[in-house]
């Protein structure tokens, strides 16, 4: 007697697509860094648009000795307002040359900036910082960075190098501003009344505002 063979259906393997889960230990996206770079590039672009031609700045026919201290002060005030971006570039160049010729100080300064950037400014608040098997709170991280900054700037050659470089650049700016006759410069009256302080510090102020806006986490963590 023949029995009907029951046919067992073949089992079709079903693969479930794996869903990528975010690793909490992986570095999170850093929109603050992108925002900082964007704002800084915009500030640089706006500032360099006011850069005056260098041949106009070093025109020898417009160089003369001032007759008095008041005339030198007046020239300096007008030239600071007109050549503010050029003067900022001179101070920055003096600082850059000083750091390049002192590689140890340059390495220390770059290491300090990198520590601030990756350990506090642009690091996400969660998870907390863990180094050498120990977890550090935000206050401990901030305190450690401040302490290291004081040591690097005031107990090494970095601080004196920065101060001397800025002093040399400012001295060059003052000498040029006092010797350059500004009569041929197209100065607006509001620019003259604005004075040297707002003119020379406008570039640095824009960069500082970029840093402040890109890293609001500093105030929220303290």
- Side by side, the strands of the main sheet go 1-2
- Listing every helix as H and every strand as E from the N terminus to the C terminus, the arrangement reads HHHHHEEHHHH
What is the number of E strands?
Answer: 2
Strand residue percentage: under 5%
CA-CA gap between termini: 89 Å
Summarize model confidence as the mean pLDDT: 77
Radius of gyration: 29 Å
Largest sheet: 2 strands, antiparallel
**Assembly type:** single chain
Shape: elongated
Q: Helical proportion?
A: 55-70%
Poorly predicted ranges (pLDDT <50, ≥5 residues)? Answer: 17-29, 189-201
Give the structural class: mainly alpha
- Helix segment count? 9
GO cellular component, one term: endoplasmic reticulum
Transmembrane segments: 82-100, 106-122, 142-175, 195-219
Function: May be involved in both secretory and endocytic intracellular trafficking in the endosomal/prevacuolar compartments.
Membrane topology: Multi-pass membrane protein
Helix and strand layout, with pairings?
Blueprint: H1 31-48, H2 54-57, H3 69-82, H4 84-100, H5 103-121, E1 129-131, E2 134-136, H6 138-154, H7 157-179, H8 189-214, H9 217-221
Antiparallel strand pairs: 1-2
Helix pairs in contact: 1-8, 3-7, 3-8, 4-7, 4-8, 5-6
Protein name: PRA1 family protein
Family: Belongs to the PRA1 family.
Function: May be involved in both secretory and endocytic intracellular trafficking in the endosomal/prevacuolar compartments.
């Amino acid at each position: 007697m023949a029995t009907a063979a029951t046919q067992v259906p073949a089992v079709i393997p079903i693969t479930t697509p794996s869903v990528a889960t975010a690793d909490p230990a992986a570095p999170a996206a850093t929109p603050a860094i992108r925002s900082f770079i964007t704002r800084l590039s915009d500030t640089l672009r706006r500032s360099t648009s006011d850069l005056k031609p260098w041949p106009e700045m070093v025109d020898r026919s417009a160089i003369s000795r001032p007759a008095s201290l008041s005339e030198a002060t007046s020239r300096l005030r007008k030239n600071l307002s007109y050549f503010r971006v050029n003067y900022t570039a001179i101070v920055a160049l003096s600082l850059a040359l000083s750091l390049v010729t002192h590689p140890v100080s340059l390495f220390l300064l770059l290491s300090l900036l990198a520590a601030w950037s990756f350990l506090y400014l642009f690091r996400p608040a969660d998870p907390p910082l863990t180094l050498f098997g120990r977890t550090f709170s935000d206050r401990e991280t901030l305190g450690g960075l401040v302490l290291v900054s004081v040591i690097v700037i005031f107990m090494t050659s970095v601080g004196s190098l920065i101060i001397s470089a800025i002093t040399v650049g400012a001295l060059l700016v003052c000498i040029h501003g006092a010797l350059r006759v500004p009569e041929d410069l197209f100065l607006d009256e509001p620019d003259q009344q604005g004075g040297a302080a707002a003119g020379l510090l406008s570039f640095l102020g824009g960069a500082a505002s970029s840093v402040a806006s890109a890293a609001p986490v500093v105030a929220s963590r303290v």
